Each structure stands twice: as structure tokens, then as C-alpha cells.
Queue: 2 jobs
Job 1
Amino acid sequence: MSTSFWKPGSARPGSSLDRSSEASSPLITSSSSPNTLPIHSSRLAILHALSSNPILILSAPTGSGKTTQLPLILHTDGYPSIIACTQPRRLTAISSASRVSSLLSSPLGSTVGYTIRFETNTSSETSIIYMTPGTLLRECIRDPLLTRYSVVVVDEAHDRGVESDVLLGVLKKVVRKRKDLRVVVSSATMEVEAFRDFFEEDGVTVLQIAGGKKFDVEVAYLKEPCEDYVRETVETIWRIHTDEPQGDILAFLTGRDEIDSALQQLSDRQLDLPASAARLHLLPLHSGLSTEDQTAIFPLPPSRAMRKVVVATNIAEASITLDGIVYVVDCGLVKTRNSGEVVDDVRVEAISRASAIQRAGRAGRTRPGKCFRLYTEEVFLKEMRRSSIPEVQRTDLSSTILLLKSLGIDNLVKFPWVPPAPTAKNLASALEKLHTLKAIDDHTRLTTTGMWMSELPLPPHLARILLSSATEPFLCCSEILSILCMLSVTSAFFAPESAETQLSKRSFSAQEGDFLTLLNVFLAFSRNGRSRKWCNLHRLNFSVLSRAVSIRGQLERYLERFSSSAEGYHLQPKSSALRTPDAVERIHKCLLTGLYPNLARYNPSTLSYTLSASNQLVHVHPTSTFFNRQPPHGKRWIVFAEATRAREDKVYIRDLCVLDDLDWLISAVPGVYKVETRWGGTGGKGSIVHTSGEGDDM
Ligand code: CDP
Ligand code: MG
């Protein structure tokens, strides 16, 4: 049983909290009618602000109607063309669009629609489009002044994602050229001053809306820190279920494994409940799920006697209204990814107070609520940072820079970055990477390949692989398309590490590595009529594979569009290379054009792999066909798609293939490596030398 004790929350206005944390008692209207939300009482102030200045910074507590009402107010009040509203996450772009459509009683995709990467639901009548900042940025490539739009709302600006920050910089430039464009920057928990200073010279109004009527959210903290937050989450959910009145629960954990484990524990506990007791309707929510599975959190539970429990990552943190959520359980942690040149650091760290407030704000949206914070009040007040660390400080900037270049923004230092600007070192390493990927030339000018890469909805290294596949000597476009769309979705296998799945996976598994295994799965799915029944038989996830098929279709359409001006490219997504004898080799070589820095070397004496770049020991992820297996005889080098440093500082590599010959590297990325052959042989008997001078003997 739990050892923790609750004390009543003291997070109330007038306590020792700073201004931003006042909203930890989220201010919600007492009526569920949208027209009585606080934002409506400020309607005239909003419209007036926008008629005087092009930029409006709007701060209003969670639940006041920023996400779902503001675009509607602007639409109703006559902004002539489309209103864009960006949401940091795909799921909230979809859910907000559905909510607003249903308020208008119009089908999703008519007056109100959404567009996110790989998915669009709009029509010629659409006047309000919810989208991710990345989608709008990519739209700028073809329409730099965003002429389709009359207003752009950048919602949840506190999130400080790199794409939303860059979008603000781009919008700052656009409003100077387009006098009729209006920009609203909104959030419940942003640092208003920072954004006001950023837009100061462009004409900005700051509007802070107070709560009006509200539903209270009572906040409770732990008296003592807990040791195991997953166990504490399970205990707390269980205690709510047994002791607290009716109402659904939303709990935050940091990742898929924790979520699955918590749900499993809750499901086991239910078995001991008496038959008459109310059951839990258990649902996971994380970015690894398909859109269809993610949206399963919205409907009411199948029976009214059931209590819905959603256990989510921070994707449920902002902009989401789950009808019926009364209780929020917040572990106070989040998983972040800091991208490195080869290895990404995945860390679990404390959330900011802004995030804690957003999380609490998921309760009490349609009735009073309670938030259980699994940390002490002292941690909240003294240890948590006020707001999130901007992503620009911890992410690989190559795709951002590629995008800016394709928008004609060449002087990256002069670009108006929302502070803090990226460091010169980060900018330089991103430029170097883009140069190796042939997206920019020796004078850092964008190439045609780079232009296409920026349009493709793929990270630059994968976009490069796709474009390489349509050139000599690779010519394996069809296969690479299938592999890339499989890499773009989450694992297609159910419970990828279970013995049963491993068995099924073996029937698809290719000696040569995981990329061909992915290709085998994709081809088998297509050959077997893309049937759900066939998927179930092989423990494959039908919706994940269907999504892969749809992504492939979209990538194909990009290639078709490029083909009209594609000198030197053989953009033939339909013709398979597999009939030719050296197809596998060509596919692997082609993958190297994007994955070239990701090399590891097998050491037969220790039966382990080390990274070529740093000599660091790495572990093959259990989902790989190379897990617990040596590379084929005589082969020592492998290439991988992803390396992550996770718990206990272990680095895992996933999606691998064997590198047959070090010379492949030379042809794939000329100038990056030198190969020195010592014994005159191939098959890895040699050493590779990074041209920067660092040697890697074997
Ligand atoms: O963005 P903000 O937090 O200011 O509010 P919102 O997401 O626009 O939602 C405003 C209010 O609308 C919520 O507090 C709910 O009362 C209601 N709402 C709802 O009932 N169902 C939804 N799907 C969305 C919003
Ligand atoms: Mg919102």
C-alpha cells in the first residue's frame, strides 16, 4: 500500500507562487456553453487590439477558450480569408478541429479542418485550419507571404518547440511585408514579457484575460518525495477509484514502457474487485500510437458504470479537453530528447511549473477537479523551473536551417530567433551536415536536392536517402520508399519484445538486417491484400501498416511533382529493383547516403559493438534481427538508423544492417571518410579515417 499522505494544495492566488502559477487553480467557466467562456467577454478587446496592431499576445488561463473559441471569434467577426491555428502536437490539432466543427454542427473538413504531417482534412470551404507549426512553415516555402491566411494564431507558445519559435521569427518578417496579416500568440503559461520584447518594434498589444467564473481544481502534493513514481501513480489511481466520487482520471508518465506497465498493474488489480464494483476503462496515450488509437481516448467509456483512466505522456499536457476528466495525477517528470551528432540523449527530467499548471488544467474543464502532484510543494515552488527549456537549445537544427534556406533566409545569424538564439557551434554543425547531405553547396547555397529535401515531410537525412535512391548507381526508389515509410511509423509488431512476436518476426527477418526485414513486412502486407486478418495472424498492427501505406502514397506524390524538373533523377517509385542481383547492396549503399555517421564496429573478442565516432560501447536493441547475434562471418561494420542513450547511460542502436565493404562509404558520402586498406582485402579488413583526421583502426 502507499505510504504517502496528501495535504491540501496551497496553490492559490496570493500564496507565495509567482504570477504564472496562479493558474494552477485553473480558471474555468461554470457553464458548459462556449459563449460564456472568459474569452467572449474580451471579444471586443481582442478585435480592437487586432485592428490597432498586427500582433496580439494573449494570455488567458487554461479553459478560457483560447484554442477552441478564439479562431471562431475571428472567423465570425469577419476576418476574410483562412485562420490558421497552430498546435504543438498533431493530436491536439485534430481534436481541436473536431471540437470546433462539432460546435458549428458542420462535418470536420468543411468550415473547420486540420492539416498535419502526412494527413490533411480540409476543403475549398475551410476557413479555420488547425495545424502544426511545421506544416505552416513548409507551406511558407511555396507561399512565403502566407497569402491564404488572414490571421495566424500560434497557440501554446509557452511550449517553445523549435518549429513554433521559428514560425514566430518568420511571421515577424511576413507582417512587415503584409500589412493585412494578423498574428496572435497565445498561451496560459507563457512568459509574456519575452514575447512582447520580441515583437516590440512590429506593433504589439498584450492582453491578459482573467478567469471569470471558474471550476476549481484542488491541488494536492505529496508530503514526502516518492521513490517509485510509476508505483505511486498506480497507487494514486487506485485510491481515487476506491475512495473518490465518480469522475475519469488522466495520469501523466514519461513513456510507453511506464504507461504499459502502469496499465498492466491496474488491469491485474481489477481482477480482485468484487463483481459488483465499478470497472476501469484503461487507455494508453503516447506518440507511438496511431492517430486512430490516440483518438480512442475521447469517447466516453463503453458503460456508464466504468471509470475511464487515460495514462499519457506529455502529449496530453496542453490543448486537450477530455470530457469527464475530474482527476489528474502528475508524476512531475517528462522524457526529453537532446539530439547529438550520432547519439541522442533521452532523459527523464523534472517538468517546469508551466507544464505542471497545464497538466492540472486538464481537470476541471467541464466540472470541478482535483490534481494529485506526486512531488512535494517545495519541489514545485523551489526546484521546478518557471518554464520549459526552448527546444532550439537541445535539438539538431539541420531541418530548421534547411527550411530557412528554402525560404530564402540565408543570414542565419540575423534571423530573428526568439531568444535564446542557437549557438554558432550548433549552426555550424547543422550546416556541415547539410553540406554532406548535398542540400547546400560549398558556398552554403541551397541546391535543387536541398530544395526538394526541405519540401519532403521527412528529416533531412531520410529525405536525402529518398532522393539518392532515384539516382545512379542506387536506383532503388521503390524499395527505399517502403523502408522509409516503415521507419516513419512506430513498430508494426505488437509487443515487439515478446517471444511470440519474435517468432512471427523471424518469418520476415532478413539475414542482411532490419531494413530488409521492414521491407519484407511491408511487401508481405501488400501481397496479402492489406488485410486486417492477415495482420492479426502475424501479430502485426493493421493500423500502423495502413498508415505506412498512406505515407508511402504521399511521398510518391512528392516525387511525381518533382519529376517534371528532375534532371539526373530517375523518380520511378513503382519499378522494383529487387529483380536485379545487386539490389540489396544498392539499397544498403543508398541508405548510407543519409546514415553515414551512424557506424558501429563489432569486436569479436568482447562480442560487443562500439561506435566508430567515439569508441563508445553500444547495445543492439532487442527488437533488432542482430540482437544476440554476430554479424555474418568476416563482417565487422554495421550501420544503424538511430542511437539513443537511455536509462543507466546505456546506448542502444536500432534498425541496423551490415556494411559489406568500407569502400561503400567513400562512394556514398565522398570526402567524409578515407579508407586505408591494410591487408589488401575487403569485408572490413581496413581502417576508416574521418577526413577531419580522426582515425579508427580495427
Ligand atoms: O485553450 P483554452 O485552454 O483556453 O480553452 P479551450 O481548449 O478552448 O476550451 C475552453 C472550454 O471549452 C473548456 O474549458 C471546456 O469547458 C470546453 N471544451 C469542451 O467542453 N470540450 C472540448 N473538446 C473542448 C473544450
Ligand atoms: Mg488551449
Note: Residues 28, 32, 34, 37, 60, 62-69, 99, 319, 321, 365-366 surround cytidine-5'-diphosphate (ligand 1) (CB under 6 Å).
Job 2
Amino acid sequence: MSLGIGITGAGVMGADHARTLATQVGGAKLVAVSDPDEARACEVARANEARRHHTDGFALIEDPAVEAVIVASPDHTHAAMVLACLRAGKPVLCEKPLAPTVAECRDLIEAEQRTGRRMIQVGFMRRFDPAYAAMHATLSSGRLGRPLLMHCAHRNAAAPGFFTPEMSIANAAVHEFDVVRWLLGLEAVAVTALRSASKANGTLRDPILLVLEMQNGVPVDIEIFMNAAYGYDIRAELVCENGTVELGRPAPNLVRNEGEEARTFPGDWRGRFSDAYRLQLQAWIGGLGGKTQSGAGALDGYVATLIAQAALRSLASGAREEIAPAGSLTR
Ligand code: ISE
């Protein structure tokens, strides 16, 4: 039987999820799309054979044809949309961040707990990326020994026009916060953020260097560069007692031409992480209806936002900021 899925937000990610759902994922069907821009909602719905569209995300959530929801509307709408899904009893896959503030994330965890079941998955799709999964498997095999430290870089060719300085951390670096916790199985205890002398690129003033201190004394450095100009480039190398494991490069082919050899970088994350998005959606749909659900949950969304808030404080203060333990909140 095919589950009816609704998507709130018909922007870059909403349209991408709609296409992946319509063409590459089994067991579910896109039935409705919402966007305040009606023409856009209608276009994404029609292109992916969904019969219904709405200009209001809450109307989509209430739509009886919608049995589960993907929230891909702007970050500041996430908390209200997810809460509406919980009230309507509809499972939700929410794009990251779960919500921009720790208080909103905490409210969502509590609201989910009141339903008595796991209803929220957060779109930290890197957990499903084959290269990150292979890195996880290598570390888990134990052959490299214990992890000692980790290097990460997160480079975009150019930040979208709507990007604010806070979003470099609250929207982009949250991917690293989540995947590092997931890979190492350790929590972050402190963060220090350093801004570079800065490339002349307006208000973002990037790149930013973050140093996360994880439990067990494992440091992780993360470069966030939203205007790296040359392409989308995600790097990670885990340094362990007996060796290292580094994330493979996404472009498999080497092109030789006019005295040079080159690999091509994807323009943005949709190309680099297309497998991850597909596998994430398939796993989410497969896990609905009471079966075991994989992927990041509400608590993971909360922790990522908790680290992001501490990193933003560090950026403002120039000081090392401690990260409060997730405390009594339970998975
Ligand atoms: C974007 O929102 C994403 O989710 C991408 O995965 C990330 O790499 C990019 O920096 C974000 O802006």
C-alpha cells in the first residue's frame, strides 16, 4: 500500500524531495505540496504527479489525503509545522535544523513524548550517505583503534541570497555537529569559534573555524566556508590510533584535457548527497507504521541546535563556550 506524503515548502529542498519521492522511492506517493507562492506549489505538485496543492502549510498537514509530512519550509517555520503534525497524529520528516532555538526543540521533544511514540525524524541525511556510512563501519570494526581527533570542512560555492551570518552555523554547520556525534558516538562538551580575517563577501564574513571538544578528549576542527567559490566540497578525516579514514571524493572520474587533469565538483549539496537523500527517504517511509525507525530523532535535532547556539555565543564573545549536557531529556 502506498502512503500519502505531503511536503510543506516548494523551494530548493521541497522540490528535490518531491522529485526523489516521485521517481526513486517505493511505498509512498506524493499527494500534496504547499507553498505561500501558489504557482510554485502548483508547479512542484504537477511535476511530480501530486493532485493537490495548498498555499498554507497547516492546511496541507490537515489534508485528509496526507498521512505523513516532509517539512521543507523555511527554518523559522519548522517548530510550528512539526507541532501541527504531532497534533494531527502524522509522522514528520523535518529538514534540519529541527528548530532554530533550543526552547522550541525542547517543546517538540516534550510534545513527541506525549504522543507515546516516535513521530519526528530530522533530515540529517549524511547519516545515510554511503561514504559516511563506510567511515562509520571502518571505525566500528575497531581496526583503526580509538579515534583521536577529526578534521572536517564544509564548503559551498556561494551562500544563497537569504543566508544570514547565523545560518552558517545554525543551518550549515549543524550537519557536522550531527554527523560527528553519530560517527564518534561522543557528545560535544565545548566549542570555540574563530572567524577568519575574512573574504570580502558581504555580511557573512566567512570562513569560520570551529573547534569542538568531544567527550574523551577528542577535538574536532570544522571549517565552514559558505562562499568558497570553486564548488561544493565536503571533507572529513578521522585520525585514529592505528591509522586514518578519509571521506572519498564525490567525483569519481578524472578528466584530462589541454594539459590538465581535473575532477568536477558538484554545484551544491543535492548532487553530492543525492544517494543520502534517497536512502533517508526510503528508510523513513520503511520505518513508518510502527516499525523501527532509523535516522536522527528529535533529541538529535535538539543537541545540534544546542551546539549551534553555543558556537554562535563563542563567535560573539570570542571565548570558549561550554555545552550544557542534554540532561534529563531522553531519546
Ligand atoms: C543547506 O541548507 C544544506 O542543507 C546543505 O546540506 C549544506 O551543505 C548547506 O551548507 C546548507 O546551506
Note: The radius of gyration is 20 Å.
